[in-house]
Q: What sequence folds into this?
């Protein structure tokens, strides 16, 4: 590939060889030319900041075939379809004429992890701007060829069209390396009022294969000569393999190889069920030294808050004029909770001539490549990771570990593709859980029933132990020459980790928020959908209801009284209106109404959820009857896709909130399947969920994957309190806890 | 060597008789739809239809299937010619990650074959063995109701697809 044409002002002014091209391109792309020459150039938006070349995002071949590249991973959110819509819109081509390639270390930009509801903001914004700038370049090229001013040209259906009807297709116009230019800081984006593809509920491109038995997942891969591997994991964290007589396993039908490296133990067979049978025999043969290292589950929160912590005051505002009259305080807890993917983690790896290829459902192909390269002690360039969809992960589940497992085993079988899938109990016991958390809140009301001061303390581990280095991956930790687990770090604000959404979005005259970061991690933990925001929003929004009750105020009015942000207010009002919320409402017997609101990370999508819950007073069993949500996620790309995300968030959060808790004894995890870690089933599915979308045409994409988790949890908790008159502060709000509260 | 009838075709399968049907379908017959979820009969991701009944293929040894008709999602229709239940799931966009969906669809298909107008309670009760982690339940329920309507219409047409033995 030729040297890139870099469109900076200095080079243009210096009169380099690219002068004419640069002038015409700059003219075509730049919206504003009036920036002072001395100012540093602003960076382009989204992930164009880190991957500025347009052809990192969009390529057009001579036949007019267009491919869009994203470094993010489709994990069931449907963004592959959304990104195709964005590109089709800004390029002015039919939706179906595009192809989208997702995360692959050989083909796509390095966009880090697919996490934090950032895909639309990072990658969607990059694609939108890259597409707009590509379109401008094509128009400029057509203007030169047709000898017409740019203003006289328009685009339509993959071609630039002149007023006299002459058409030049994108394929004709594009020349080698024409798109290998750096993005300009600003793009001429389309007027949202003219959108034809964006804002439409275009059906998802991945669903047809998924409902007809097409190969849709990494689990469905079948490469020529592929063998199947299963891991024998230690019985508990830190267990040491003392003895393993493999002779019986070696004789089993189909067994190809046993791979042992320190505490890493795996078996490979020609067929999948042969591998499972061999795994079971190997597990019996393996003798482990097990240490009792886990805290008592009943003492968990005492243990956690007694661990050494690094305390940071992350927010402080003081207004001595605001005088508190009535003060309340409360402690809320969240147990460890599991991602609980329905499909256990899986990967396929192949080692050929010193080069490793891994097909994986990781959320971060580049960071995983780094980890796997380090583990194998090879340069990252000789490792390629290709994202292939897996079962929904909702954060850092076993995906990255399975990728490392497959790579380590494949290296022992040069040439042969190795498919590894975890067993159910391995996924449940070894996935990194969503961390347990404790929050302590204290607040006072002034004489007008408004919050005068607010104190919020949160204790938490980090919320990301995702790979970068090998030490985050189980296989590398278990090798004879192990890689040490990297030191955990709190995730920086404004997004935060344990302190995500810990700072109130409401206006309180005085407020203080302290993050107690706990480095020691008794259980393996990492990122789970919404990170600390799930528990922090649950705590804040439950406590808001406790304060509203103290003030004798309606919960919705009480929230509005403390909120200036107009988009936040709109979302609250929309959800309340959609639900039929009335200040003097009285729910039917044994039912309660609840409300909650948050702006995810205090900087992303706004979401409010109103809910109706029925509680069986005899058994304590809670049932979400209906939920009504309102969401403002900025410019909407695909309304049905957004609705699907919010519906899913409410249902999943309901399951976390009512049922879920990882259990353990002093040596290991005891919630190892769906019987010991129950989640919601169809008999608990609500009668209806309504999602109201507030579209904000032309506003930045705010993402949507995680915004519903916290509000849904608190809304349900508030409805239970409304139904029973009892406030439950320890997650999950189980039937037994509700029953005990009623009986107390 | 055992003969297994899957989606109307006979397959000679060389696997241990205790091999669960799931692995025969995926590994020997190279079908994708039935999924490994738990291997314990707790999640429903592996569900297929055997002689008209929904069966958890991860806990059903191959030996028990001699002479029986096995149907997987692949046997219902294709992207080009989807069966009513497949059309319904597409039209309702009833998936997020979709890993659990094939199993759900097979149990719903078995239900609709014996009861063409199930109530909402009957659909929920039928799908009780199935887990979905993405929270797509509302859409799944809508899709099954839509499939019932589509199958009703399809039965009136001689070219009707989607009803299997």
A:
């Amino acid at each position: 590939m030729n040297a890139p044409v870099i469109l900076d002002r200095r080079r243009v002014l210096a009169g380099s060889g690219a002068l004419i091209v640069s002038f015409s391109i700059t003219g075509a792309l730049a919206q504003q030319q009036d920036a002072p020459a001395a100012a540093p150039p602003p960076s382009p938006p989204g992930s164009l900041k880190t991957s500025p070349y347009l052809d990192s995002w969009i390529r057009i071949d001579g036949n007019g075939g267009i491919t869009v590249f994203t470094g993010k991973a489709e994990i069931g959110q449907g963004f592959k379809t959304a990104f195709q819509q964005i590109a089709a819109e800004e390029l002015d081509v039919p939706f179906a004429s595009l192809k989208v390639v997702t995360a692959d270390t050989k083909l796509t930009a390095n966009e880090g992890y697919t996490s934090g509801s950032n895909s639309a903001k990072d990658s969607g914004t990059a694609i939108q701007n890259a597409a707009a700038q590509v379109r401008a370049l094509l128009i400029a090229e057509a203007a030169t060829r047709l000898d017409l001013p740019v203003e006289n040209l328009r685009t339509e259906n993959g071609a630039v069209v002149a007023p006299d009807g002459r058409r030049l297709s994108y394929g004709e116009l594009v020349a080698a390396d024409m798109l290998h230019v750096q993005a300009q800081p600003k793009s001429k984006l389309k007027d949202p009022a003219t959108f034809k593809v964006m804002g439409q509920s275009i059906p998802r491109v991945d669903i047809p294969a998924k409902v007809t038995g097409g190969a849709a997942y990494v689990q469905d891969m079948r490469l020529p000569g592929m063998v199947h591997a299963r891991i024998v994991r230690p019985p508990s964290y830190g267990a040491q393999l003392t003895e393993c007589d493999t002779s019986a396993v070696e004789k089993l039908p189909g067994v190809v190889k046993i791979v042992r490296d320190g505490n890493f133990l795996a078996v490979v067979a020609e067929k999948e069920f042969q591998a499972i049978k061999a795994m079971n025999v190997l597990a019996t043969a393996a003798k482990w030294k097990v240490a009792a290292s886990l805290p008592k589950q009943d003492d968990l929160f005492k243990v956690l808050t007694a661990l050494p912590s690094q305390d940071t005051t992350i927010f402080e505002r003081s207004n001595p004029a605001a005088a508190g009259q009535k003060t309340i305080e409360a402690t809320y807890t969240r147990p460890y909770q599991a991602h609980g993917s329905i499909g256990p983690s899986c990967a396929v790896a192949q080692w050929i001539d010193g080069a490793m290829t891994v097909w994986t459902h990781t959320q971060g192909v580049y960071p995983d490549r780094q980890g796997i390269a380090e583990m194998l002690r090879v340069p990252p360039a000789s490792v390629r990771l290709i994202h292939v969809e897996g079962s929904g992960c909702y954060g850092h589940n076993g995906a990255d570990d399975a990728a490392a497992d497959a790579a380590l085993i494949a290296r022992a079988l040069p040439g042969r593709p190795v498919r590894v899938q975890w067993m159910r109990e391995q996924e449940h016991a070894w996935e990194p859980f969503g961390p347990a958390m404790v929050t302590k809140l204290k607040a006072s009301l002034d004489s007008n029933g408004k919050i005068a001061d607010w104190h919020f303390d949160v204790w938490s581990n980090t919320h990301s132990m995702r790979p970068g280095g090998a030490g985050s991956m189980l296989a590398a930790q278990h090798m004879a020459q192990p890689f040490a687990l990297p030191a955990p770090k709190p995730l920086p604000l404004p997004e935060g980790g344990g302190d995500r959404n810990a700072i109130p979005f409401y206006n309180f005259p005085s407020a203080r928020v302290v993050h107690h970061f706990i480095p020691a991690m008794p259980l393996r933990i990492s990122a789970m959908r919404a990170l600390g925001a799930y528990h922090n929003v649950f705590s804040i929004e439950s406590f808001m209801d406790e304060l509203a009750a103290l003030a004798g105020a309606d919960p919705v009015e009480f929230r509005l009284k403390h909120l200036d942000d107009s988009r936040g207010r709109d979302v609250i009002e929309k959800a309340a209106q959609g639900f039929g919320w009335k200040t003097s409402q009285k729910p039917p017997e044994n039912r309660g109404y609840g409300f909650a609101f948050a702006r995810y990370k205090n900087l992303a999508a706004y979401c409010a959820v109103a809910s109706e819950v029925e509680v069986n007073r005899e058994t304590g069993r809670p049932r979400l009857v209906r939920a009504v949500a309102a969401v403002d996620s900025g410019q909407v790309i695909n309304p049905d896709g957004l609705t699907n995300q919010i519906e899913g968030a409410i249902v999943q959060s309901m399951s976390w909130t009512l049922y879920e808790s990882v259990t353990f004894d002093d040596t290991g995890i005891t919630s190892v399947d769906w019987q010991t870690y129950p989640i919601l089933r169809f008999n608990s599915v609500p009668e209806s969920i309504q999602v109201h979308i507030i579209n904000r045409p032309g506003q930045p994409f705010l993402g949507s994957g995680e915004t519903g988790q916290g509000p849904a949890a608190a809304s349900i908790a508030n409805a239970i309190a409304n139904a029973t008159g009892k406030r439950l502060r320890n997650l999950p709000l189980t039937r037994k806890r509700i029953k005990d509260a009623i009986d107390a | 060597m055992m003969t297994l009838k899957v989606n109307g075709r006979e397959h000679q399968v060389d696997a241990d008789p205790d091999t669960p049907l799931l692995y025969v379908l995926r590994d020997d017959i190279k079908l994708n739809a039935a999924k490994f979820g738990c291997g314990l009969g707790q999640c429903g991701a592996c569900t297929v239809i055997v002689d008209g009944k929904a069966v958890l293929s991860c806990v059903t040894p191959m030996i028990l299937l001699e002479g029986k008709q096995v149907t997987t999602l692949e046997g219902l229709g294709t992207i080009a010619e989807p069966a009513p239940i497949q059309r319904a799931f597409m039209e309702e966009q009833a998936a997020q990650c979709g890993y659990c969906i094939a199993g759900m669809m097979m149990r719903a298909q078995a239900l609709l074959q014996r009861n063409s107008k199930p109530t909402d309670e009957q659909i929920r009760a039928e799908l009780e063995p199935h887990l979905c982690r993405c929270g797509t339940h509302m859409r799944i329920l809508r899709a099954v109701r839509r499939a019932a309507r589509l199958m009703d219409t399809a039965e009136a047409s001689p070219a009707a697809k989607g009803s299997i033995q």
